[in-house]
Design goal:
The complex is a heterotrimer. By secondary structure, chain A is mainly alpha-helical. Chain A contains 27 helices and two strands. Helices cover 75% and strands 3% of the residues of chain A. The chains are: A mainly alpha, B mainly alpha, C mainly alpha.
């Protein structure tokens, strides 16, 4: 077994140890096991990454044949190239940090061992997802992370609302997964293989009709929408915040939800040959970015603000893929993992300090009480708002530039991206002001126990905050590279797989500078508006009577209501009323009760013949005799 | 060795009633079942799936005048079914080890008879012998329901018996017809599969044979709308009986489709395939939608089972290598998973009596129980790395491919639409199984009583083989697909039209 | 123009018909049994007539079998009748409908 296989296998071992023996082991051992295996996995990733950098060619490891029959062969095989390298480093690196953070966060929870077992299980599946060499392997990880997400969202299963959220996440994901499966079937039907390299080259060289390409692309997008919470399958993500906060950070911000972007990038060869599908991808991403940002504005729950922000940011990544700038999408995925994990974990520290309070209306003035947490939250926020020189600036700017300057881009896409950026800056600083500034609105009982994060949590926050500052420097924009004679190792790494992004001929340097400045100004404007509305002394935080627009947005554009009231109700009605009562019951009647009744009636009929009167029987005998004789005479 | 597996349960069934109500009878029964399992496992490992031949055959004279012999052998059709039967019986007995019913020699003898008849049905290589044993299976099963069932057991037993008997009558006609055809074409009566497969039947004759087999199997599997006996029988039987009915007896129908309908009437099967695909999909969706709102645990699993049986038929009539493999794997997978679920419900019933239907919150009260239940639930909703995924993936792939082929051949988009609709079963399956898990495993609200005890080590050991199979098949389906590769190759029909870049046309 | 054989057969048929009629319409069990005997005798007569015509002994031999059977039958039947009459106090057929479905 090579080191490559060890990467996913180590967290699996951690899961087995904690899952099977966890309840018997002391807490310290559980923590060590829970964190050591992901850490070892990170080490293994680094080793493999060095190997990869050394040779420059992708690594492979085939374990066994998963399924084989004539014309259909799928290997259980792992594959490590540049995209995988980025994903693996993010997953194991940030994953390990969040495991460490969880030691402090989950301290004293009754399900401590179970928690670490689930988290390791998640890492295992996530790594299978990104390391898989073909669509089946990816799908194994894809559904596996869905399972881990389901288990962790419903981790505190004593609360029915939380198990309902878990169920919803799984089922909505399953809708996406069905799209994914159908895409895989179509791909196999045409390419005769499910191996990524072969699929990409097949569709790149000899694409079938445009209709088929669009179908494949859109079905893959449906899969990505489910996992990455894109419109219209985004409804599970806000509810998923029911899980423990580190889970929200790891699964629902940094890694799992970005799997859709990974999928799009992984299939870039196919997508580049599917023009119409690319347009759909770009617009779904753009609309999600905008819708997520607007919904973030109306939330009072700190975690849900972050959840909508995640949705919006992934929308930007998907949009980047849609305009053909896959490496920009991947870059934003990478920086986003740092600052969004940082934000979630800082929010977790706030929740931890306030005994689980999530409503920002019951916070306020925490900057003085939790200075360290405030510091890292602010750094994360600045990165998310895309202000230089924080990590988010470089990646978001690249996406906006691509949305404008790409062959597939347009001013409309760019405008939507800018609007989303403005709203992002606004709602993030709204959250900062409501949470950390102003007078304290914290419940006095809770207020007495406020304490800043313990060392395990604080150290992780510090690392992630640092990442939010410096992570962006590996991917400087082309403009800066030329101006300062620097290189962008991130883009160079991905170039062999995803290519370099080439702007349109008419999009020159002047435009790029102008757009960059504009983006920064828009971000600052968002902050300023937030300050005017929420930061000033005496600002009214409750707001007036919500109007129709506010109502629509805060209810998530009624997507949830639609699914609940229309889709789910219809299915339940079908089940209860139509099938159970209109079909099943009559069916039982006609196929069981009716024949039985007919039998009973016949029985009655024949009974009457059996009169018990001897002389009647003699007559029957005579009739019989007559028939026999008559028959004999007739045929004799 | 094959012969031993066949006579051993009959002999044991005759001996066990004289051993009294002590543990001796149970011990002998379990030992017999384990011996059979060991023998079948050895045969399974020695079985060569690439040859496509019937292996380890035994022959005894039966009715010479009709050319019928007691011929039994292991082949690609029955290899999974023999294994499934051999695995499930000891598991079922071990799970009911301490119940009152297991103390009664009648129960043990009936289990052994049932196992004997089932093994015979699956291993038979002679259609007449097959039919006799196919009907013989009913006797111990009906008695199991009638004597050891729950409420409404009389109604359940009678409707199960009469309904399935009615379905089999046409099959008998087809059996006799085929024998007579053999007499007409070869000059002597014969019921051996090998000679019946060599018969030259025209379209009308094949249609008759095909429809007769399909009707019998549609009742047995069952398929909508011939499932009316199913809710009644699954609810009325004792949990161990339900586990066997859903686990193995339903597979007789699936086996009939694969063993009789496809090879004996190949042209009719190809002709009717789109119809059967549509029918299977209706069954899949019907069962799944009904399961959505079931509060009765046993009924929920029963309707889920109806839905999952549809996948077998769907895969079989895709006539694609992938779909056929999927059907074969699903036979094994569904048998193991549904038996596991019913046995778990049975273990709950042992603890709480009929009140187990109101039971919930296993995660708090019985963590081991909760974990094992979740594993079976996940296998049932076809999560990757479990057997359910391998099966459903292959079935849907085969169905989709068949649909695409029909479409490209200009035969309309019906099959393709059916395959797409079948894919929604994946979403529905997740919904009802997770609703089930949410209530039974997680719902922690107002727990009225405590559960007496968590899964004991004996029960865990009894269920372990099922879990082992679930994950073994799920992680490495290729190892299993090898066993049926040649048979699937014989059944698969070439895709009608050439597709763009179709490498799999051969 | 009827010969002896035809006359005898006609007589046998008439006797049989009378017996059958009696079995069918009479309500008294004793009379029914008597009618049965009448039918038996009609059959015997037809056997004898046939034996006479074919000049063989088969028909005559049959007569003895029938008389033996009839004797046994009447013995059992009478015993049953006596028992029934004792139990029900009547020999009316209407009382004997226990096998009614």
């Amino acid at each position: 077994m090579s080191t490559l296989t060890l990467i996913p296998l180590l967290p699996l071992l951690g899961f087995l140890v904690n899952g099977l023996l966890g309840r018997q082991l002391p807490t310290t051992v559980v923590s060590i096991v829970g964190c050591a295996f992901p850490a070892l996995s990170f080490v293994a990733t680094c080793v493999v990454f060095r190997q990869f950098l050394g040779t420059g060619s992708p690594l492979e490891d085939t374990l066994f044949t998963w399924a084989a029959t004539r014309g259909f062969v799928v290997d259980a095989a792992f594959y490590f190239d540049a995209i995988t390298a980025v994903m693996c480093l993010v997953i194991t690196g940030i994953g390990t940090l969040i495991h460490v953070y969880s030691i402090g966060y989950m301290h004293g929870d009754a399900g401590y061992a179970r928690y670490f077992a689930y988290l390791n299980l998640f890492l295992f599946f996530m790594l299978v997802l990104v390391l898989g060499k073909n669509l089946v392997m990816l799908f194994i990880g894809w559904e596996g992370v869905g399972l881990a997400s389901y288990l962790l969202i419903g981790f505190w299963f004593q609360d029915p609302a939380k198990t309902a959220a878990g169920l919803k996440a799984f089922v909505v994901n399953r809708v996406g997964d069905t799209g994914f499966l159908l895409a895989a079937f179509l791909i196999w039907a045409y390419a005769g293989t499910l191996d990524f390299q072969q699929v990409n080259s097949y569709f790149g060289m000899t694409p079938p009709t445009a209709g088929v390409m669009t179908a494949i692309g859109v079905l893959l997008l449906v899969g990505a929408c489910g996992k990455s919470a894109q419109i219209p399958l985004h409804v599970w993500l806000p509810d998923a915040m029911a899980g423990p906060t580190p889970v929200s950070a790891l699964i629902h911000a940094a890694t799992m939800v970005t799997a859709g972007v990974y999928l799009l990038s992984r299939m870039s060869g196919l997508f580049l040959a599917a023009e119409h599908a690319m347009t759909v991808v770009a617009w779904v991403g753009a609309l999600t970015a905008l819708a997520g940002a607007t919904m973030g504005v109306t939330q009072y729950n700190l975690k849900k603000v972050l959840a909508y922000s995640t949705m919006s940011q992934i929308g930007l990544m998907v949009m980047a893929c849609g305009v053909g700038a896959f490496s920009a999408g991947m870059f934003h995925l990478y920086t986003h993992a740092f600052f969004k994990a940082c934000l979630f974990l800082a929010a977790g520290a706030v929740l931890h300090a306030l005994a689980g309070e999530e409503d920002m209306r019951n916070m306020g003035g925490l900057a003085r009480r939790l200075p360290f947490t405030f510091g890292v939250f602010l750094l994360g926020t600045l990165a998310l708002c895309g202000l230089p020189p924080f990590a988010g600036f470089f990646s978001k700017d690249e996406i906006l530039w691509a949305a404008y300057a790409s062959e597939r881009g347009s001013v409309a896409l760019w405008l939507i991206g800018m609007t989303a950026s403005f709203l992002t800056a606004f709602y993030m600083f709204r959250a900062v002001f409501m949470t950390f500034f102003g007078a304290s609105r914290v419940d006095p009982h809770v207020s007495a126990h406020i304490h800043d994060a313990p060392p395990t949590m604080a150290s992780v926050l510090a690392v992630l905050a640092l990442g939010s500052i410096v992570a962006g420097f590996v991917g400087l924009p082309a403009l800066w590279r030329e101006a300062f004679g620097l290189s962008a190792p991130f883009y160079d790494l991905l170039a062999p797989v995803l290519g370099h992004f080439e702007p349109r001929a008419d999009a020159g340097h002047t435009a790029e500078v102008a757009l960059m400045v504009l983006a920064v100004l828009v971000g600052l404007a968002g902050i300023a508006v937030a300050w005017l509305r929420y930061g000033r002394a005496g600002a009214d935080l409750r707001g007036g009577k919500p109007g129709l627009l506010h109502e629509t947005v805060s209810r998530g554009y009624y997507f949830d209501a639609f699914y609940d009231k229309v889709v789910v109700r219809t299915m339940d009605w079908l089940s209860d009323t139509v099938l159970a009562r209109r079909i099943e019951a009559p069916l039982t009647r006609t196929s069981l009760e009716r024949p039985a009744d007919a039998g009973a009636r016949m029985n009655l009929w024949f009974t009457r013949l059996q009169s018990g009167d001897l002389q009647t029987y003699v007559i029957y005998a005579l009739i019989g005799l007559a028939i026999v004789l008559g028959f004999g005479v007739a045929h004799g | 060795m094959l012969g031993t597996t066949l006579w051993l349960p009959w002999v044991a069934a005759l001996v066990v009633p004289f051993l009294g109500r002590g543990t001796l009878g149970r011990g002998v029964t379990l030992a017999t079942m384990l011996a059979i399992l060991w023998l079948v496992a050895k045969l399974f490992l020695a079985f060569d799936g690439t040859s496509g031949l019937a292996q380890f055959g035994v022959h005894l004279p039966f009715i010479a005048a009709l050319g019928s012999t007691l011929a039994f052998a292991l082949d690609g059709y029955n290899v999974f079914l023999a294994l499934l039967t051999a695995v499930l019986f000891p598991v079922v007995l071990a799970c009911t080890w301490r119940t009152d019913e297991a103390a009664r020699p009648l129960y043990l003898a009936l289990l052994l008879l049932l196992e004997a008849a089932l093994l015979g049905t699956f291993l038979a290589q002679d259609l007449l012998v097959f039919f006799v044993l196919w009907e013989a299976v009913l006797i111990p099963m009906v008695l199991l329901i009638l004597v050891f069932g729950g409420a409404q057991r009389r109604q359940a037993a009678i409707s199960f018996f009469l309904y399935t008997m009615a379905g089999s009558i046409v099959l008998l006609a087809a059996v006799i017809y085929l024998g007579a055809q053999a007499s007409a074409q070869f000059g002597h009566w014969s019921f051996a599969y090998s000679s019946l497969e060599a018969l030259q039947l025209d379209g009308g004759q094949q249609t008759f044979v095909f429809l007769a087999v399909v009707l019998a199997c549609a009742v047995k599997s069952p398929l909508f709308p011939f499932h009316a006996w199913l809710p009644l029988a699954y609810r009325g039987a004792s949990p161990s009986g339900t586990a066997l009915m859903a686990g193995v007896l339903s597979k007789m129908g699936a086996y009939g489709f694969l063993r009789l309908a496809l090879p004996l009437a190949p042209d009719a099967a190809a002709y009717f395939a789109p119809l059967l695909i549509g029918w299977a999909v209706v069954s899949i969706v019907y069962g799944a939608v009904l399961a959505l709102r079931q509060r009765h645990y046993k009924l929920l699993v029963a309707y889920a089972s109806l839905s999952h049986m549809g996948y077998i038929v769907l895969g079989a009539f895709s006539l694609q290598p992938t779909g056929l493999h999927g059907a074969m794997v699903q036979i094994l997978s569904h048998g193991v998973v549904v038996a596991g679920l019913f046995l778990l419900l049975g273990l709950l019933e042992q603890r709480r009596g009929a009140a187990y239907l109101q039971l919930h919150g296993l995660a708090t009260r019985a963590p081991r129980f909760a974990v094992v239940t979740m594993l079976f639930v996940l296998a049932s909703l076809a999560l990757p790395l479990t057997s359910g995924f391998a099966a459903e993936f292959l079935v849907l792939l085969g169905a989709f491919n068949a649909g695409l082929a029909h479409w490209h051949a200009g035969a309309g988009a019906g099959t393709l639409v059916a395959a797409l609709v079948a894919a929604t079963g994946v979403v529905l399956g997740a919904t009802y199984m997770l609703r089930f898990a949410r209530t039974l495993v997680f719902d922690d609200s107002n727990l009225p009583e405590r559960l007496d005890r968590d899964l004991t080590m004996r029960e865990l050991a009894a269920l372990a083989p099922l879990l082992l199979l679930v994950f073994w098949i799920g992680v490495r389906p290729a190892a299993w697909m090898n066993a049926t590769e040649a048979t699937v190759g014989q059944l698969a029909r070439p895709v009608i039209a050439t597709m763009v870049g179709a490498q799999h046309d051969e | 123009m009827m010969g002896r054989y035809e006359l005898l057969l006609a007589l046998a048929a008439a006797l049989f018909a009378m017996g059958l009629f009696g079995v069918m319409v009479r309500r008294n069990l004793l009379v029914v049994v008597m009618s049965v005997e009448l039918m038996l005798n009609a059959v015997v007569l037809s056997f004898v007539a046939a034996a006479d015509r074919t000049q063989t002994l088969d028909g005559a031999a049959m007569t003895f079998f029938i008389y033996v059977a009839a004797t046994c039958e009447i013995a059992v039947a009478m015993a049953l009748l006596v028992l029934l009459a004792r139990r029900r106090g009547t020999l009316d057929l209407a009382a004997e409908q226990e096998l009614k479905g």
